[in-house]
Give the backbone structure.
Amino acid sequence: MIRYIIRRLLAAVLLLFVVSVVTFAIFFLVPRLAGATPEDMASRYVGRSTSQEQLHVMAQKLGFLDPLWVQYGRFAKSIILGADYSTGPTTVHCPAPCFGYSFLTQNPVWPDLTDRLTVTISLAIGGALIWLLAGVATGVLSALRKGSFFDRAAMGVALAGVSLPIFFTGLLSLSIFSYGLGWTAPGGSYEPFTSNPAQWAHDLLLPWITLAFLFSASYARLTRAGMLETMSEDYIRTARAKGLPERTVVFKHGLRSALTPILTIFGLDLGLLLGGAILTESTYSLPGIGKYAVDAIKTNDLPKVLGVTLVGAFFIIFANLVVDLLYAVVDPRVRLA
Amino acid sequence: MRRKTAAVAIAAGMVIALGLTACGSNKPSSNSSGGGGGNATPAFNAAIDKVFNPSTKKGGTLRFAHSGEFDSTDGADTYYGYSWDFIRLYGRALTMFAPKPGKDGNKLVPDLAESLGQPSADAKTWTYKLKAGVKFEDGTPVTSKDVKYAVERSLDKDTFVNGPTYFNDFLDLQGYKSPYKDSDPNKLGLKAIETPDDRTIVFHLAKPFGGFDYLAMLPATIPVPAAKDTGTKYKEHPVSTGPYKFDVFNAGKNFALVRNTSWDAATDPNRTALPDRIEVALNTNAQDIDDRLLSGNLDVGIEGTGVQAATQGKILGNQDLKKNADLASIARLWFSVINADVAPLDNIHCRKAIEYATDHEGYQRAYGGPTGGDIATNLLPPQIPGAKKIDLYNFASKPNGDVDAAKKELADCGQPNGFAINVSYRAERPKEKATAESLQQSLSKVGINLTLKPFPSGDYAKLYAGKPDFAKNNKLGIIIYGWGADWPDGFGFLQQIVDSRAIRPGGGNTNLGIKIPDVDALIDKALVTTEADARNDIWGQIDQKVMENAEALPGLWAKALIYRPPSLTNVYVNDGLGGFYDYAWMGVKQ
């Protein structure tokens, strides 16, 4: 088991390295292949009235004149060791993993990311709890009462949930609960958990439910399908024949094996969300990673986009790793010798 | 069956619990309005040309929101009109625009200085005397050296990339680069600025500039104490000289100002300092900003560009909302350059044919009709001093174009059947695309056939339309563009778009091809003229010359529909600031 974990960890690091090379290439190699000069690339970082000479100086300052492998080396070095940047009168150190320095806001990316990560984690974990509980519960019930009114109604709602995008349900909920009824701050707001847990939950409730509405739908459908299949297996009949209580049959024998695919999807979804719930955060003005990414993309702020990409990749890889390890716990059949 | 029932109950209970939590939430305490304001009744355009809801009542929180990232809160690094307006809350430049509604706001008045600048006879030396008793937020008196240092650091375009380059262009730098590379122990090595005593500052220019008082208005002259300068980090807490100082600054999220107790109202007749606190939210959805304004949860959309298209319709169609709105002229011109580099537009008659054939109402419709602005007949927007209405091609009497006159010009040009050229616009701007289509339609009536050429807006000036070779080789005969004044004066509006010497072959130009020797000569004459009326008159002549040469096709003088929530007091549009509400004058009801 330990060797397995180590192997998986090494693979994860390798994967992160590959992702960093690929994203770096997209941002710094592709524009060059498309014919952009270092000065053209530097033009993103200067103001409105800039001469050609000024652009050249800026390209030099940003290191765009160096060969690409030198630029990547500098980037990788800043992730591992941190980097120094000039503010004019002084030099500031941007501690590892620096993820670059936004020349538009004149801030290192990493502190921005950690600051916003708490928001995204709050949103993702809360939403995930709700959708997992609601989705799986609905799915189990629907499977057990296949064809009933509840089943049809639940699956109908689930279909609506899957089909309606966040920017629709989110705006609708804002217009009703926030602007209409005034239950939450207009347009959404965020209070850190550490300063006021009640306000934190209050602010996040609408985003959680909106997010959960979208996700729980697919979980309900997946659980229902999985449960229908497992509940018709022979070992369920055996369990019932042994005289086990129905609760044990459903939860311990049925749900447990139906849960394996759910866990896979859950890991991917959660990892993806931790990398930024772009639509939800934008709709509710939550200052999380997703909103940060959108704002960065709007202003062509490459170091930030690069940072978000890497953090997103990290979470997806990490979540997958956790899921793979959890498999062994949930499903003894895949437990390694 | 019991088990299942239990499970149903759990699921149902969960749903109800979620619902209850939502129901149980408290309403945010709303600001109930009461008292404070004057007796002004709300009406459409009530804050244009007069102060609406006058008040001297202090207190409350003034809430701003921005749909993106704030340009910069550092005076050395900011180049947006809203920021130059807002910065006066915490910084005092040598001069500023008079806090008066409408055109009266175009006049410069002294702020940190005792009076406007004293020029030498050749307009190359300008002297200012600072007011006594002005202090930084920590109580230290402001000296002329702090102003000098502030201008010095603004010269460093490696560090402060966003700010304008006027001081770099006009001061007699003698190679000076930056105080950060200055060998002088006090970092005051720039010879172009002298500080003979703590209250006198003298600027030496490399070339004459009669309108230097406008440069003295730039945020770069807001004093900065050298010891507190943190370079690019300074924007997180610029040391205040105005009525407010920075309280919190969260990059990319929000910042807030509180009262600066070291500010002395006796030294400052130009600011009211009514609110107790000022908050600015950043990166807020543009549509969300409108919704919050309408629902009374926000006071000002700080960018001053007006509400979104959807909200425009909502406001104009509802009398109750419309009475809380202002249609402000924003010192911006939507226009096109008629590129004389592209044959047959090298012939003035062919250019005039375009002026005549254009459907001006069509141009206006592309920007949303009269809400977008008034049909422009020349370049200088009417609110700018010196602007004259010049209508050489009958835009006013023939708003849909004059086909006969256009055909006559085409015959004189030797192209009686018309010709084919390209029209460029910024791909991400639907209004410019609509303009191109309108031009295509109206010019086709006289046989001028246009092919639409969209380019990415980020590189429009740098690589495409603003690069002379590219424009010529790609036959960009008509270049759709827009321009806003840096300040309301002929130089601040026109120089960057009509001075042929501003055209750089490498691209990145703001003048997209207007090359008229007479215009260049007149600009030089305006630069040495220190008397304002005479100078403004010359800029009017320059406008006339450009129109006579038919190298620019004016579209419209832009307007912005701004929503003015009932919570605001003491609010008016200041023309000097470029059509923004005067942020240093307004207050809030409590």
Q: What stands out?
A: Chain B touches chain A through 59 residues (CB under 8 Å). Confidence is low (pLDDT under 50) at residues 1-38 of chain B.
